[in-house]
Write a structure and sequence with these properties.
Helix 3 packs across helix 8, helix 10 runs parallel beside helix 12 and helix 11 packs across helix 12. A hairpin with a 7-residue loop joins strand 8 and strand 9. The strands form two sheets. The protein has a seven-stranded mixed beta sheet with strand order 1-7-6-5-4-2-3, sandwiched between helices. It has a four-stranded antiparallel beta sheet with strand order 8-9-11-10, with helices on one face. About 40% of the residues lie in helices and about 15% in strands.
Length: about 350
């Protein structure tokens, strides 16, 4: 939004450019607490339960470095954001992987029973899920909460896409489920919320004992985040206008345009309930080629860059799904459909 960019510029010229408080500008922490109270029903103490970070990836690093001890087991869901595994391993954690598959990308009780144990320290949940584009159903969230309580596990919830959901959905954080308020680290991203990913402003939200540990790690990772960007994000959360209605509505139209175009030329398209991403099932589309090979051919011969979803697996990958980004202008989406039709 142009208003946020103007606010960042004004704050850069008119406000302090010295170190802001390590946990973040008070006005931003208050704005984050207010935003989550209004939109998700969370009651967060801005002074004791919110930490501003230099992006959500730094928030993840702070969580893993502060909460994992060598030998702790960490449950992760594949496909997964590529930073999770190296950071968990760097902290000494032992990954326990759950393999999700299309078209619904869901887990069940048996899958959780196979990975949770007395050694489990953390579980990492990304919802809405990149690259699958799905929003974890309440039924699955309740099941995961049950396991967290049963095994005394802390949940690190990567919720950076929480404002980018479609078809009337409302994001529901795991933190709101019974038994989870004191054992959840909730991570948000202003870059994703406002479509300005280069700003790298993130949020850690957790109960005071967890937040104290998270702040200790954050202090020695980046210490703080540019104050003018913090001021602008606070402004945007306090007075967003209709951004949080028009932004997802516009992206939903782009999703629908790309999906319709792809179906018209014979591709099988998987559902997308959130994020910027839409996936193609290559096998169901009649393409007898692994996702990586098709992605390389698409970009080299037809100029369409896509991501093979197999790249988001550490083991036993799904190899027939291709991820596309629909956060593009209409003419780009239409051209991509035409070129992919030729690649098919």
């Amino acid at each position: 939004p142009i208003a946020l960019r103007r606010k960042a510029g004004e704050a850069l010229i008119e406000d302090s450019n010295q170190y802001p408080p390590m946990r973040g500008l008070p006005q931003l922490r208050q704005a984050v607490a207010g935003w989550y109270a209004r939109t998700q029903g969370l009651d967060l103490d801005p002074d004791r339960e919110i930490i501003v970070t230099s992006g959500a990836t730094e928030a993840l690093a702070a969580a893993f470095l502060s909460l994992i001890s060598p030998g702790d087991e960490v449950v992760l869901f594949q496909p997964l954001y590529d930073a999770y595994l190296p950071m968990v391993r760097r902290a000494g954690g032992v990954p326990r992987l759950v393999r999700l598959t299309p078209p619904h990308w869901r887990f069940d009780r048996a899958m959780l029973e196979a990975v949770f144990s007395e050694k489990t320290r953390l579980v990492v949940l990304n919802s809405p899920l990149n690259p699958a584009g799905v929003v974890t159903p309440d039924e699955d969230l309740a099941l995961l909460a049950e396991f967290c309580v049963r095994f005394d596990v802390t949940a690190v919830c990567d919720e950076v896409w929480e404002a980018v959901v479609f078809d009337g959905r409302a994001h529901r954080p795991l933190m709101t489920f019974p038994g989870m308020r004191e054992r959840t680290v909730k991570i948000g991203s202003a870059g994703k919320m406002f479509g300005m990913t280069g700003w790298k402003v993130g949020f850690l939200c957790a109960a005071p004992p967890l937040a104290k540990a998270l702040a200790g790690a954050h202090q020695f990772l980046t210490f703080t985040t540019p104050p003018n960007l913090q001021a602008a994000v606070a402004f945007g959360l306090e007075d967003p206008g209709d951004w949080f209605e028009t932004m997802p509505a516009g992206l939903q139209r782009s999703r629908d345009r790309l999906a319709a175009g792809l179906r018209d030329v014979g591709f099988s398209v998987l559902g997308s309930g959130g994020t910027y991403f839409l996936n193609i099932d290559l096998t169901a589309s009649g393409i007898d080629q692994p996702d990586r090979a098709f992605a390389l051919r698409a970009v080299r011969e037809h100029g369409v860059a896509a991501i093979p979803v197999s790249a988001f697996y550490a083991e036993d990958p799904v190899t027939n799904v291709l991820r596309l980004c629909f956060a593009k202008a209409d003419d780009v989406l239409d051209a991509a459909v035409e070129r992919l039709a030729r690649a098919k």
